[in-house]
Specification:
The chain has 2 domains: 77 residues, Arc Repressor Mutant, subunit A, CATH 1.10.10.10; 173 residues, Beta-Lactamase (2-Layer Sandwich), CATH 3.30.450.40. It is globular and about 60 Å long. Helix content is 49%, strand content 17%. The N terminus is likely disordered. The protein has a 6-stranded antiparallel beta sheet, with helices on both faces. It is of the alpha+beta class and 259 residues long. The chain has 11 helices and 8 strands.
Length: 259
């Protein structure tokens, strides 16, 4: 009977829509998805689901997770999401928000999104000071020693965070970089509690940063909003005073996603 129900529902979904629905479901869940989850949610037959997943994996829209059975967004789907949020009307509104924050603080503001290997700068508004730190749009920075990266890590499920911390040694970018996994874990737990993250010259000597999350309508992190500055102008404690302003900007950016 169950197979008959599934078969009946499958015939109601146009063939050219099925793969799109799978990609939409994977993106919506925000975690690696098993074929059985898709069979249940979409009502497509098992052979159909497996065939479409194989096609999406071959073409780079999905990729296998660490368990070898689940699927998450692949490079082409992640690039598609970047191109979507970078559309002209959204970017114009986004940059206006960033510019307002940057003008009020007087330092560079960044919008970054998570990728597989680190955070990628999606947008930025530069400080007007001649002394500035050059991290252009498209730059990828590590998770473990940046304010944006640590904010992202604080949103991971415990097993995913465990996997990250145990995967390989944490590289020391500066003498202040946290390279002990348990010390980093403790800070990440604290970040989840206080709602903002910091970089105290951990990624680059002479630079401090503070970041807050930008959330979607399901309260999932989609990006981070951060400010960074040379320590000659702002030490970490000086930048932390702006986290309330960053939180207000984050809410405005979240509103753009929902509109």
């Amino acid at each position: 009977m169950a197979n008959a129900d599934t078969s009946g529902k499958e015939t109601q979904i146009p063939t050219n829509l099925r793969l799109l629905l799978i990609l939409e479901d994977v993106a919506r869940r925000g975690v690696a998805v098993k074929p059985s989850d898709l069979i249940e949610s979409l009502g497509l037959a098992k052979p159909t689901i497996h065939r479409l997943l194989q096609t999406a994996e071959t073409e780079g829209f999905l990729q296998r997770d660490l368990d070898g059975r689940s699927y998450g967004p692949g490079p082409r789907l992640r690039q598609l999401s970047v191109n979507t949020v970078s559309s002209e009307h959204l970017r114009t509104a986004r940059l206006a928000i960033l510019r307002g924050i940057a003008d009020e603080i007087g330092e560079t503001c960044n919008l970054a999104i998570p990728d597989r290997e680190g955070m990628i700068y999606l947008d930025r508004v530069e400080t007007k000071w001649p002394l500035r730190i050059q991290l252009p749009i498209g730059t990828q920075v590590p998770f473990h020693c940046t304010a944006s990266g640590k904010m992202y890590l604080s949103t991971l499920r415990r097993n995913m965070l465990d996997g990250f911390l145990s995967a390989r040694a944490l590289t020391a970018n500066t003498e202040k970089t946290i390279t002990d996994p348990e010390a980093l874990r403790a800070e990440i737990v604290q970040i989840a509690q206080i709602g903002y993250s910091t970089d105290d010259e951990e990624f680059m000597s002479g630079m401090a940063a503070v970041a807050v999350p930008v959330l979607d309508e399901n309260e999932r992190l989609v990006a981070t909003l951060s400010v960074h500055a040379p320590t000659q102008r702002h030490d970490l404690q000086s930048l932390i005073q702006f986290q309330t302003l960053l939180q207000a900007g984050s809410k405005k950016l979240s509103g753009l996603l929902a509109s």
